[in-house]
Predict the 3D structure of the following.
Amino acid sequence: MTATVVLGLAWGDEGKGRVCDALASDVGYVSRYSGGNNAGHTVRVGEEEFALHLVPSGIVREGVVCTIGNGVVVNPEVLAEEVRALEERGLEVRDRLLVDGRAHLVMPYHIALDSHREIALGSARIGTTNRGIGPTYEDKVARYGIRVQDIFDEGILRTKLKAALREKNSIFENVYGEEPYDVSDLAAWLLSFRDFIEPMVADTGTILREALENRQRVLLEGGQATLLDNDHGTYPFVTSSNPTVGGAIVGSGIPPRSIEYVIGVTKAYTTRVGDGPMPTELFDEIAETIRQVGGEYGTTTGRARRVGWLDLPAIKWAASLNGITHLALTLLDVLSAVEEIKICVGYEIDGRRVEGYPMHQTDLHHARPVYKTLPGWGEDITGCRMRVDLPTAAQDFVGFVETEVGAPLCMISVGPERDQAIIERIGT
Ligand code: IMP
């Protein structure tokens, strides 16, 4: 069988968890491949709302095996707490959640470094989630990282902690005037998770490849999104991993040829948390209306999200970069609250009209959106289950986006409930 990747086309929070949940009724495995608990996926089932940070959203579907891939960075404390909270709500988690032994661990010193660095950057800050994600990936690349498997060999764990702290402790003491971290304390902290995590540790890449060979469907769930990708995003205002389709392959351990579908998810408008360029950002009452109606506050940090119109050059570029086969459009119902809808169809950069998405970061900072204006529909669409049920103006909006992006829509969400969606068939 084949794998499907679900990834965000903009700056995150597109509703990937929701799309994964809709697709997970039909799959055997759901796997996270990048990021850590900087992510926040919300899945609503009936009256219940599940806010997930590390555990893949497939966990709310009975019988689906969920894997946290080698490309994810895992804060063991957060994982333990999330699993406990889900189990308290009656979900069976530990018998179908697997964590790759190669995944790197987010340590307390990573979180401290993240927050010190942001303070030191002042107005040039990235606006990170302060979850230690960047410093953990830095250590991974620098080969100072502590991996899940290290918890099971105390000798190796201590040696690695010593190496990881050699330079960091002098930074904590001499730059930030803080107490150094103690190897024994950190080792004891990590070892306290050993019994909890041991039954879940696995070679998840091998498991996914075997599942694919056994004709099971696998869904790969991205954290963050394309414009936050460390290579392709609005650097340095990005995360430290690769949420794009290449990251899905590296971070889950499956071969490229097993990927059949790539579903790019975008909201019907744009949001961003943290700093960095966002050409279509709005600062008026329309932004406030969308923020309120769409509940645009971070699942992880509670920060108010920046809000703007849909940025088609960015979305089209992200769609092409990831080779999307399908598009999923979320939160269409939120636009019922505005009279007139704008879509950015190009930019004006220093007096020049530019159609595509600029490579140069300075251009993006200077880009002023060129808008196409469409009439709003101003009515409740939460009951629509087929495209033809939508008001004509909404159909026109959806059709315009689909044609411009050049990929068929497979899902349009029209409300927060699981069934409030227009689902269109993928493949045969
Ligand atoms: P970090 O991933 O915490 O290092 O943050 C880097 C940038 O990515 C910041 O602008 C964050 O706000 C943003 N970011 C990280 N995770 C998410 C997410 O799940 N949704 C939206 N933005 C995110």
